[in-house]
Amino acid sequence: MTLRKPFAIGLVATTAIATLTIVARTFSQTNQSTSLDTGNVIFLHPDGTSAAHWGAARFLNYGSDGRLNWDRMSHLGVYLGHMKNQLTATSNAGAVTHATGVKVDADSYGLDETGKPMTALSGKPQTIMQEAIAQGIPTAIINSGIISEPGTGAFLAKVKNRQAHAEITKQIVESGVDIILGGGEIWYLPKEKTGRHAKSGKREDGVNLIDLAKRKGYTVVYNREELLKLPTNTKKVLGIFAAEDTYNDEPEEDLKKQKLPLYVESAPTAAEMLQTTLRVLSNRSKPFFIVQEEEGTDNFSNYNNAKGCLEAMKRADDAVGVAMKFIEQNPNTMLLTAADSDASGLEVIGEQISNMPLNQPLPPRQKNGAPLDGRDGTGTLPFVSAPDARGQRFPFAIAWTGFADNAGSIVAKAHGMNAARMQPTIDNTEIYRLMYRSLFTKTLPSSSP
After folding, report:
1. Which CATH code fits 9-440?
2. Cα–Cα distance between 77 and 414 in angstroms, integer?
3. What is the pLDDT of residue 357?
4. Which residues are catalytic?
5. Which residue from 79, 108, 151, 245 could staple onto 293, CB 3.0 to 4.6 Å apart?
6. Is 48:297 a contact under the CB 8 Å cutoff?
7. Which regions in the chain score pLDDT beneath 50?
8. Known binding site for Zn(2+): residues?
């Protein structure tokens, strides 16, 4: 195995984003994507992902000369994710901004400072998905975490506290959305009630939301096999694939001690959930709206679990591939991707370990004290990239700046219908405007300065 000095994202992330922005502008001028009036919208939210997260996934799975599905999306913009009252985003407030098109305080889950529902950029006290449901547009939310995770939940629920999982889940089931896929069975069931995954529910109001969903016409499925067998003409779907998240978001060492996998083995992947959703919704006669979140990219990062983070990144990218393949046959579809923050400041480290033997464990920390992860956690063997164009593979490690969500170097991307409307630098409020234009054929005035 020939080892050469590899590319380190941490040293060149800013330069890379600037270069990609220039490329995106050139592509926009010479290769305009299909720009139709209205059509389907797929918003994929790989939570917590920066350019460095995507770069690490590229190295591991395809090599430095390979390309992710995400790389092949046609247009991009550097994403500005600041909140109304702070520079760094929270998952709940970032999702509210995507769902309404307006800046909110960091603690918002759909309500303003006085406790009233946010008025969206459209002028209505509804999120974009609630407005779509009111107009009869088929809709779906998909999450690898509990369904009350704000990346999807904030499109359908409004509460005072993001920890109000029972109330958020109830509002989702009552919202009228056509497809609900994710984890969190404990928040569907009353206390002492045993489920397919949960030993006991956690609802204190006595309501069984699974029974309620069945009365509302939902077909309920609990695992990959049941989901993939759904008939195309299924009207409404509730998929519950884990007691809590479909992943186990703890440090590598803790998972090893407990003999737990990264992801629940019976749960469908993000790509499988999207594929089934597209199969069901594309059978309708109207354009549809899908919001999907791969939450593992954020949660594994916040536990500094590099192995889990990179697995989640691959799953997110596979879902992007499913959406892009659908667009090949259905050009009246817009695909958008955006994170709202950079989870724990992941960076790829290559220079310090390029001459180390591959069978030698990494030091647990860098010289500056930053945690350093190998393929099974700190003090383990390095990751090794997929071969480059010359067949060479390189060792690398993952370093972390902390355990929180940062502003970071976040990139939003667009592909398919109206993708050329993506700006080289895009405020988080603009995600809403892009989706609104494609769903409702109306260009709203920008709320960003």
Report:
1. 3.40.720.10
2. 9
3. 74
4. 91
5. 151
6. yes
7. 1-35
8. 47, 298, 340
